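Lecture notes, structural biology module. Today: joint structure prediction for complexes of two components.
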Amino acid sequence: MEDEAVAFLGVFVSEQFYYWASVVMLMIHVGFLAYEGGVARTKNVMATMTKNLLTVASVGLGFFLVGFWVYNAFPLWPVAGPIFGPWMSPEGLSEDNGTLLGLANAALPWAEALGPNVSDHLTPVFMFAFALFAMTTGSIMSGAVIERIKMGGFLILALVLGSVLWVIAAAWGWHYTGWFTTKLGYHDFGCSSVVHGVAGFFTLGVLIILGPRIGRWVDGKSIPILPHNLPLTLIGLMCIYVGFFGFLAACAIMLPEQTGVITIYGTPMTLASIGCNTFLALSAGFVGAYVASKGDPFFTMSGGLAGIITSAAGMDLYAPVLVIPIAFFGAWMMPKFAKLIEKFKVDDVVGAVAVHGCCGFLGTILVGIFAAGYVQGEGYPPITFHGQLICSLICCVILGFLPGLGLSWVLSKCGALRVSKEEEIEGLDLLDCGIGAYPETGAIKVPDPELPTPAGAPATVTKLATES
Amino acid sequence: MNVSPFKGAEDFINAKGAIYSFADSPGFLYAMTILSAAIMVYLVVKAYLIKHS
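The predicted structure, tokenised, for the full assembly:
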């Protein structure tokens, strides 16, 4: 009995760890909600924030229905094995492939493992943690496209990105049998490319088709459209940072009967060093963006995220004194990436392509320099610069940019991507939500003949200026 | 290029002690420490120099 209790304690620790790390990760979405709401103009605040809520809803459901199975079914395909699914029989499979088939079948929405099941405390909590990763990809895109995208079009894009594309990248490059790692030595501990690179470059593809907001460029001249509430964006980003401590902690693998904490690749790590390196990356990132942008508050506050993303891929293998210059460099480059993108008249409202796409790509290939030579499994190739480069390009271009461009083009041709010029000028709050965020701001007093008043004078009610 | 302090997978997976890159190159890490300190000083200096008026 005592042995059973001790064994269950190991299970309970794992279950609790992923449960609470996932709850902390939810702060990423609280942060994106506030950040994007602050960046939007007053006429688009409610639509922007509602879009963030629906990102959680759509990607959460899509990941449960499709994404979790894709992650478990695709790690070998198309290079090292088949797609695993319920159509396969375990007979005739090798022991390793039989295990993978079991994991894939346990990730199906109707699987016993995902329901209340006293013999499996971990599969549902892993699904919970992964779903939060998935929602992050949708939230990365959502801020870039605000103020002119159709809600339905956005949700289709978020579903494909969050439930399929990044999950394939994760299966290939963030799985203990993923072919990126077994064939090319790929290492991406904190998902710099498999989450940030895919989502950032998918966003770039969408932005090219979507086009800039009306008034963003006039006669070829750039006209900045300023955030309506910069303090709200600052608070939002600080919430995102809290969430990212949970995100990176959840990248650690702590399973019952393990004798140490390991990465998804089965290599040793410590959770303590992740906490230390994350806050150093945050600090150095702020510095890099502050000095590169000459004190621009918008870039400075995104610099912490740029620093974390640039160092996340190798954070388990970097000494703290290496994280600082790497994070500084990534965040120092970020405003330059953003200005380069702006030169092509791509209207990325929150700098998602620069922060997530460019810094994610940069951070992944830096692992090929600053952690080169580690061998992550018997028979695997070592971490190399070219291995990191090839896999990161597959993530960013093949699973990110091209699908974003293609899917947006199809939606655009169907008239399902961008709102009309009139709707954009009026603002999306009334179109999508039927109410503005600040009703008093544009309120007028109109007589209401149905309300009696003691003095006999017509009562007044407050209505939005836009109401008839 | 090889900055891993380990010879192979078994060595790494069963490691005891430091597992970070350049662990066997303390000179490089001392240089990174100086660079990190320089970044911190750079921030303070730039905070005085950056003016938007």
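Point to remember: DSSP finds 15 helices and four strands in chain A.
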